[in-house]
Every structure is written in C-alpha cells, then in structure tokens.
Amino acid sequence: MTTHTTPSPTALYDIPGPVARKRHRLYGIVSTGLILVLVGWVIYLLFDTEQFTSAKWTPFEYKGIQELLLRGLGNTLKAFAYAAVLSLVLGAVLAVGRLSDHGVVRWVSTLLVEFFRAMPVLVMIFFIFVALKVQPLPALVTGLTLYNGSVLAEVFRTGINSVERGQREAAYALGMRKTQVTTFVLAPQAVRAMLPTIISQLVVALKDTSLGYLITYEEFLHAGKLIASNLDYDLPFIPVVMVISPIYIGMCMLLSWFATWVAERERRNPKTKAVEVAPAEPGTLLPGVQ
User: Fold this and answer.
1) Is the pTM of this model over 0.85?
2) DSSP string, 190-219
C-alpha cells in the first residue's frame, strides 16, 4: 500500500493545485515554442544572408588570424586575472573599513564604496586612460577593480553581518579579539554563503574586460573588430561574433561551474559539517546534582 503525501504550503506561496499545474505546464510549452521559433528565425536569417558559406569562414583557417584571436584571448584573461584578484583584495579592505569601530575609517570607506559603485565603469576607465594618461592595461584593470571591488565590499559586509549573532557573542565570550572573530569565525562561514554572489560579480568583471577595446587595449573583442574590419565580404562582423560569443559564454559558464564545484566541495568537507552530539545519559549529570 502506497501513501501519497501532499506538499504543505510555505510562508511564501501555496502549493499549486491540478489546474495551476496544468496552466504552468501550458505556459512552459508556449514559452518553449516561442523560443524555438525565435531561434529558428535567427538561423533562417543567417542562412538567408549566406553567413555559413565557406568564403566567410575560410579566413579563420589562416594562422595569422588564429594567432590574433589567441593573443586577444590571452590579453582578456590577463586583464581579468589582475582585476579579479585586486577586486577581491579591495573589496575585503573596504568591507573591513565599513565594519570598523572607528568612525572616520568607517565614513571614508562608505564614501569610497558609494562613489565607485555609482560611477559607470566606462567613465572611470576613460578618465584613467585619458586624463591620467595611464597605459591601456593598467587603466582597464584599475577601472574594473574600483567598480567591482566596491560592489564586493558590500557583498562581504552583508555576508559577515548575516552570520548568526550567537557565533560572534560566543567568540567574544572566549576572549577573542574583533580581528580574530572576523578572521576565524565570521569570514569562513560568510564566504560559503557569499560564494555564488562573488562568482557572479567576477563574471561581470570578465565580461567588462571587453570595454578595453574602446581604449585600444588589444583584448579579445578588439581582435575580433580588427579581423572584421579587414575582411572584404558583406557583413563580415557576423561570423566574427559567432566565433567570439561562444568563447565568452564558455568562459563565464566555466567560472560558474568552478563556483559550484567549490561550493559542493565545501559542503562535503568534514571540517564544515556539524559535529554530532551524543544524547545525554545519567552519567553526564553535573557534580552535586542528584
């Protein structure tokens, strides 16, 4: 005899009934159909404009073009690596400043975070490149670092404040200092919760490296633009976009997969699992208690 359990409603929503499930299924089918129609229409346009002819794809077999794309990809990854590391460091420093007990430090850190979060990335990059006359790579990395570091500062601060208050109070009761509490108690727990948001922001930094072509930094998009401008057939940028876009998407997906792998590894780590407490027995009574 099998028993069927009905899911209980939550505080956020009620479990959909048979009619609602049929309606949701219909919405899913219609949405899938519309997406397939859109994809089919795009593919039709690509074939109609003869984007898959051999003449438009033969140039990608040339060694010079392949080397140009690889060099651009390497420059993109180099800028991203610098920006990612520096953004994490800057974010941690600003988050510590915002959590400081000293009013001046907290006020200055808050001002910097709010200013760089509100400032468009492209404006910062152009200002550093044009007004300060900085080379393209440092200008790009600095702009990305200032923006993404200020965003990550808020992520870190929110993550640390989200840790259960009892953890902080217990650590202080053991005689730990604030730096020790933050470093050894709050931060390790907060990082696991913040990891998806951190990776999402790093994906943003990876995509924003494409702004480097506006300041003549020879990154991946700049290489694609250079290739398209030197091809002599009609609509040359479409095959270039079809080559570059999957690589950008693949790098972002790889970064997201890495975040998922790290999160799963943390959950399986014995050091992060809760310690099982044995049930109380008569012999565990406190001295003097009958």
Assistant:
1) no
2) HHHHHHHHHHHHHHHHHHHGGGGGGGT---
